[in-house]
């Protein structure tokens, strides 16, 4: 969003009251602190959520945060209804309140939650504002390998405490995209892919197009396989969902936090972040480091087991990006981004021999 088109809007009385109550309940404001004014500035209008930076004025200076990030259901009715039906808002709120405190992963601090729709579960999160000293990642540029490795380290911190943890696996609100039948996935994949073969995907090399064709036909079986140790899966761990600060990387956008194969986020992060040549040079070492760090964190896993699962996981980029491509139309940045990631994803699957693996297992 262009900064010069962004204007701040004063919050109405109902919003101020909701914020004050939520911050009090979240122990993020002094008891009985009074919020006197709030001003909302949009920072991101996503597919499913609207995000605002909120400046706050308290009756006693310092009684609560001066600034926060508010992420709430999108105003766009269709997207919001889809997200709500998928449990995306509740899931993100529950991740921040119930799971983030059990990990060392760097996510924004949660200040409070709001049940805006009155559906009996929170759908809005109030988060630590990191706009001043952090910059969002850029999906259109290659991530420097040192930064990628630090993001990967955060992934190890997310995964280790929940590794094969049966109580976490049973949490009904976690997103399940792997290891379960996904109704209509084949039709959605095919419809989406065929709608862009003459546009976004028109100039992809023939072997990449063929690879995507084959993957689309077997995506449901691929997702069902879901091999290897299971743990928490972010499901969209890529540059756009990372905030880079001095000496730290912060992971955001937890609407799709779920349960699945430990190699999924690893393959997706690498596949969406690195150019093909860089990935080829570094992926074995990144995998080795990832397993070594998990082991240091108490996880019982070996490099060769991880390599085996990586062959499957190398389709993660295609799995995540083929279904939404048909809805990417007019925005040139999104078109460029999707085309680039499709190509990277296909090349990653080809390099890993993922489709041959799939053929041999089915
Ligand atoms: N705590 C935060 N501090 C600073 N900026 C943030 C914070 N949270 C989100 N942002 C900014 O807002 C943008 C949108 O946030 P986020 O990725 O969580 O939602 P989204 O992508 O719009 O929604 P969706 O969940 O529908 O994909 C981010 O790209 C980031 O620039």
UniProtKB/TrEMBL annotation:
InterPro entries: Aminoglycoside_PTrfase, CHK_kinase-like, Kinase-like_dom_sf, Oxido-Kinase-like_Enzymes, Prot_kinase_dom, Protein_kinase_ATP_BS. PROSITE patterns: PROTEIN_KINASE_ATP (PS00107), PROTEIN_KINASE_DOM (PS50011). SMART domains: CHK. GO terms for molecular function: ATP binding; protein kinase activity. ATP binds at residue 71. SUPFAM superfamilies: Protein kinase-like (PK-like). Keywords: ATP-binding, Nucleotide-binding, Transferase. Residues 37-362 form the Protein kinase domain. This is Phosphotransferase. It comes from Rhodococcus pyridinivorans.
């Amino acid at each position: 969003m262009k900064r010069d088109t962004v204007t701040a809007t004063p919050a109405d009385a109902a919003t101020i009251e909701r914020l004050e109550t939520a911050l009090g309940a979240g122990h993020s404001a002094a008891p009985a602190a009074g919020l006197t004014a709030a001003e909302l500035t949009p920072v991101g209008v996503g597919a499913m959520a609207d995000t605002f930076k909120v400046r706050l004025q308290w009756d006693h200076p310092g009684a609560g945060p001066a600034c926060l990030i508010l992420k709430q259901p999108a105003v766009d009715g269709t997207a919001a209804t889809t997200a709500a039906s998928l449990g995306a808002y509740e899931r993100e709120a529950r991740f921040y309140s119930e799971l983030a405190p059990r990990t060392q992963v760097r996510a924004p601090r949660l200040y409070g939650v709001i049940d805006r729709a009155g559906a009996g579960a929170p759908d809005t999160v109030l988060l630590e504002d990191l706009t001043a000293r952090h910059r969002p990642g850029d999906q259109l540029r290659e991530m420097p390998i040192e930064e990628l490795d630090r993001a990967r380290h955060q992934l190890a911190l997310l995964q280790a405490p929940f590794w094969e943890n049966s109580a976490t696996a049973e949490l009904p609100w976690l997103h399940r995209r792997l290891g379960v039948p996904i109704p209509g996935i084949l039709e959605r994949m095919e419809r989406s892919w065929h709608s862009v073969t003459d546009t976004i995907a028109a100039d992809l090399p023939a072997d990449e197009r063929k690879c995507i064709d084959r993957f689309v036909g077997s995506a449901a079986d691929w997702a069902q396989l879901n091999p290897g140790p299971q743990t928490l899966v972010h499901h969209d761990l890529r540059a756009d969902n990372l905030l880079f600060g001095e000496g730290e990387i912060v992971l955001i956008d937890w609407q799709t936090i779920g349960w699945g194969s430990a190699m999924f986020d690893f393959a997706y992060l690498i596949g969406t972040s690195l150019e093909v040549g860089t990935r080829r040079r570094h992926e074995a070492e990144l995998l080795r480091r990832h397993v070594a760090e998990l082991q240091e964190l108490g996880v019982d896993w070996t490099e060769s087991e991880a390599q085996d699962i990586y062959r499957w996981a190398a389709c993660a980029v295609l799995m995540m990006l083929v279904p939404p491509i048909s809805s990417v139309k007019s925005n040139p940045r999104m078109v460029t981004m999707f085309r680039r990631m499709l190509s990277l994803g296909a090349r990653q699957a080809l390099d890993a021999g993922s489709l041959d693996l799939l053929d041999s297992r089915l």
